[in-house]
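Q: I'm building a small set of examples for a reading group on sequence design. Run inverse folding on the following structure and report the sequence directly after it, with nothing in between.
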């Protein structure tokens, strides 16, 4: 999603714009080099919440570069590191004559393009794993019996008269499964809060699913022998179906967050 070009400034006197407007969105450069965009469409060219140390902004519509969509936002980053010593994370210093200027562009790329698929596929993989959990939970809430044995006799006896509780459980699972995929395709609204929530959810899913998968398989293969015995059908369900799905769900979210962070937050 980001296109870069690096230039060495001939001098420090450059035109710096703090306000720009395009046909679909407006861009404001705030104190500290943060960039705020406003657009009724909430489209991808407004996803600048991770930009830092920007000294000038611009907004436009169709760009001559290929696969840049119908609108774009451009930011200018100034860093006080000579070109010969440029590093991936230069220290910002807009007023220094010898500095590197990096042009950053984010655009409303075609949602069917390769960059979009690369950006969102891990979140959709997480949605698939989470969706399986949502589907079976709704199925059981409606009175279905298939695979219920994988939850064990104790679970069936405890919740047989409380199936209503599966409805809010399914709702929470649905938000956790499909919410990140939706956010990844609509520009991450309230990015700090939502991405932190997804980070937290991924850690919980990986920890819960991974630990239970390992322990349950160790029990099944005789490496751990519970003193009071164990419910084999329930252990199979947790070891081979439900907890591995939690692990896949959380791992996919984590990879998606890391890859989008590398793409979207390279200026942090």
């Amino acid at each position: 999603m980001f296109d870069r070009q690096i230039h060495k400034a001939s001098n420090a006197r450059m035109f710096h714009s703090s306000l720009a407007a395009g046909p679909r969105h407006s861009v404001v450069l705030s104190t500290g080099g943060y960039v705020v965009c406003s657009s009724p469409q909430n489209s991808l060219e407004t996803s600048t919440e991770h930009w830092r140390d920007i000294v000038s902004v611009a907004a436009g519509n169709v760009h001559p570069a290929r696969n840049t969509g119908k609108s774009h936002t451009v930011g200018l980053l100034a860093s006080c590191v000579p070109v010969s010593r440029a590093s991936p994370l230069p220290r910002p210093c807009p007023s220094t004559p010898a500095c590197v200027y990096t042009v950053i562009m984010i655009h409303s790329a075609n949602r069917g393009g390769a960059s979009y698929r690369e950006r969102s596929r891990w979140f959709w993989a997480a949605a698939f794993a989470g969706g399986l959990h949502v589907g079976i939970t709704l199925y059981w809430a409606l009175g279905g019996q298939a695979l219920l044995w994988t939850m064990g006799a104790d679970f069936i006896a405890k919740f047989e008269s409380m199936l209503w509780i599966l409805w809010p459980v399914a709702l929470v699972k649905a938000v956790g499964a499909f919410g990140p995929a939706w956010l990844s395709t609509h520009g991450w609204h309230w990015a700090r809060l939502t991405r932190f929530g997804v980070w937290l959810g991924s850690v919980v899913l990986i920890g819960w699913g991974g630990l239970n998968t390992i322990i349950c398989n160790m029990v099944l293969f005789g490496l751990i022998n519970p003193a009071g015995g164990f419910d084999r059908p329930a252990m199979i369900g947790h070891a081979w179906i439900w907890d591995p799905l939690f692990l896949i769900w959380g791992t996919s979210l984590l990879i998606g967050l890391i890859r989008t962070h590398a793409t979207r937050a390279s200026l942090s």
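The longest strand covers residues 72-79.
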